[in-house]
Amino acid sequence: MTTTTPGAAEVELAIGGMTCASCAARIEKKLNRMDGVEAT
User: Which one-letter DSSP state was computed for residue 35?
Assistant: First the structure.
């Protein structure tokens, strides 16, 4: 079961131009450090 905070939104980002897994991991790591952001 998944619970969300009232008023929370789900956003899917399509980011192009990354040519390696390291680039994708770096962006995901930065986003996950932001308050209220969760990777699924």
Answer: T
DSSP string, 3-34: ---TT------------SHHHHHHHHHHHHTS
Alpha-carbon span 38 to 13, nearest angstrom:
13
Distance CA 4, CA 30 (A): 21
- Cα 8 to chain centroid distance, Å, stands at 14
What gap in Å lies between CA 13 and CA 18, rounded to an integer? 13
pLDDT digits (tens, 9 = 90+) for 7-33: 778 888 888 888 899 988 888 899 889
What is the total residue count of the chain? Answer: 40
